[in-house]
Design a protein that fits this description.
The chain has about 375 residues and is an all-alpha fold. About 55% of the residues lie in helices and about 0% in strands. The chain has 16 helices and 3 strands. The protein has a two-stranded antiparallel ribbon with strand order 1-2. The two termini are about 20 Å apart.
Length: about 375
Amino acid sequence: MGATAGPVWGRAEQQDFRSRVRGTLLGAAVGDALGAPVDGLGLEEIRQGHGPEGVVDLMSAYGRRGAVTHLTQLTLFTVDGLIRAHVRRDTGAWHPPTDLHRAYLRWAATQRDWGPDLRRKDDGWLAREEWLYARRDPTRTLLLGLGDDVMGTLESPKSPGAAGPEVVPRSVPFGLLVGWEPQLVAQLAVECAAQTHGHPAAYLAAGAYAVTVHALARGESLDGAAQRALALLAARPGHEPVSEALRRALEAVRQGPPGPARVEELAGAGTAAAVLSGAVYCALAAEDVRHGLRLAVNHGAPSGPTAALAGGLLGALHGETALPPAWLAELEGRPTILELADDFAMEMTQGPALHGPSGASPGWLTRYPRDGQG
């Protein structure tokens, strides 16, 4: 697997890209945090607890306002794995799915009471961030898929019947590989999703989401981005549930004002494909980021994954400055997310200057080791 030649980056293009990277990662995390306190609740339960409009602001979960879940944790390790994959490319050891699997194993190590403590290991900086060791209800499917060193593949996936929505949010960083061709972005997202979720509708939903974000990061409209995902899906065996879910989202926007019932109708099945459908609908129907995320949270379908996906789409579409500042101010881990986002943007736009044949930055290689075990 390889990337095509990347774009030529002028200063304005670099600034726009960094804003979209920040917007995507922060937007996904804010959506996750907004949905976390009510994930798994029905609409009436949400309204009973939070008033007739439901959740309109960040609430407390896990003992603090703005707390994120395992969805955001895994997304950050995806970013870390992608940076390391690009750094390792200099060595000729270029196999991004393996680099991402190593990154996901580093996340899994943060969730265990036993085994090596990565905070004491010289293995990059992200795994030394204390707040990432909090356990935020990771699903059994994730823990099983990453419970040993064996990497699930499309030919031999982990949990072949698993189709849960938690596989999709961690795929948002793949969409930020703007120098890659869309089909390669889709393939990487699909292969990495199969490491934990083996149902075609799950890993193809991850691929479709990544391609949609990819088109947005390149400046396309959300409708056009979803159409691009549909076109790429058409050649994939088992694509029908995901393609149908995306078409339903596109059609629902034209069927009247948005509301909880329509989101629940799309996302209510709780599968990866269904939640992707609900998230795309919320982003398409959104008047602004705040409206879109509230729409993505207040319904009886999975609130956390739906809002995380919608937040990633809206962030990629509008960039960092469109996100509500008051929500960002209380977001757990915001300094880490910003640091990682800026590192990713720098690697994608200026990687050769950091670790190319003409020289390398020792500090960068300490942050993102490229040895075979990193």
